[in-house]
TrEMBL record:
It catalyses: a 1,2-diacyl-sn-glycero-3-phosphate + CTP + H(+) = a CDP-1,2-diacyl-sn-glycerol + diphosphate. It is found in: Cell membrane. This is Phosphatidate cytidylyltransferase. Pathway: Lipid metabolism; Phospholipid metabolism; CDP-diacylglycerol biosynthesis; CDP-diacylglycerol from sn-glycerol 3-phosphate: step 3/3. Pfam families: CTP_transf_1 (PF01148). The chain crosses the membrane at residues 6-34, 46-65, 77-96, 108-126, 132-153, 174-193, 199-219. Its EC number is 2.7.7.41. It comes from Cytobacillus eiseniae. Belongs to the CDS family. It is an enzyme of class 2 (transferase). Keywords: Cell membrane, Lipid biosynthesis, Lipid metabolism, Membrane, Nucleotidyltransferase, Phospholipid biosynthesis, Phospholipid metabolism, Transferase, Transmembrane, Transmembrane helix. Coiled coil: none annotated. It comes from the Bacteria.
């Protein structure tokens, strides 16, 4: 527990000031976190980030992370992000032939999906911060409230397993408790901030984000169970890797935009 607290304080001391500052520092932070997260995913699959497919994945990730204000760079070469993704697919498939199928079609699919999963999530981290600090704070509070509520309420009264094949410690009671705690925080947030949403809007949005935040957590748990790893990495002692810390937010940040909170 002591190690977890120390790691959380150190990470928070780096992450939170950068988020408050915004602008280019947030973009740099997003690139760093996303690159580490992609490395963790490829490592689960036993794919090296320093191999040809790893470098292609990393370059595609960096292109996907380009925020709106910098997309004019792509216009200079008349390529869109989608076209770069299609080019990456062709390069991946070519590599399957070059390696005589040692790099398989399954590896191609994993590399593309891993890049999109991480890239889309952290791209919307940049866009959320660009829309306003208040939305990043809201997303962090909702996920922290959901995680804390699910953990403590699950330990106190949890009996029915939520999805034991994927995450044996999570319970239905804990999951519902997490949503309730997120709602309580959202109501307080609306009372003490000027976020542009009505009570009904924020309640509905909070329920969706809290539920999908938990799904994001379960997705990463499913990945780790499939590849038989305990944590996605060890960059944060006591907490695991970057994916372990941002799995819920990788679902929440895009959804904030998709459901028109912004």
């Amino acid at each position: 527990m002591k190690q977890r607290i120390i790691s959380a304080i150190i990470f928070g001391a780096i992450f939170l000031p950068v988020v408050v500052i915004g602008g280019v520092p947030v973009v740099v932070l997003a690139y760093l976190l996303a690159s580490i997260a992609l490395y963790e995913l490829l490592n689960m699959r036993k794919l090296s980030v320093f191999s040809a497919p790893g470098i292609i994945s990393l370059l595609l990730l960096w292109i996907f992370l380009l925020p709106n204000q910098f997309e004019s760079v792509l216009n200079l070469i008349h390529f869109t992000k989608i076209e770069f993704a299609l080019l990456a697919v062709l390069l991946f498939l070519t590599y399957t032939v070059a390696t005589k199928n040692k790099f398989t079609f399954d590896d191609v699919a994993f590399s593309i999906l891993a890049t999109l999963y991480v890239g889309i999530g952290f791209y919307y981290f940049i866009e959320t911060r660009d829309a306003g600090l208040i939305y990043v704070v809201y997303s962090l509070l909702i996920i922290w409230a959901t995680d804390s509520g699910a953990y403590f309420i699950g330990r106190a009264i949890g009996k029915r397993k939520l999805w034991p094949e994927i995450s044996p410690n999570k319970t239905v009671e804990g999951s519902i408790g997490g949503v309730i705690c997120a709602l309580a925080v959202a109501v307080l947030f609306l009372l003490f901030t000027n976020i542009d949403a009505s009570y009904i809007q924020l309640i509905l949005i909070t329920v969706v984000l809290s539920v999908f935040g938990q799904i994001g957590d379960l997705v990463e748990s499913a990945l780790k169970r499939h590849y038989n790893v305990k944590d996605s990495g060890n960059i944060m002692p006591g907490h695991g890797g970057i994916l372990d810390r941002f799995d819920s937010l990788l679902f929440v940040w895009p959804l904030i935009h998709f459901i028109y909170l912004l």
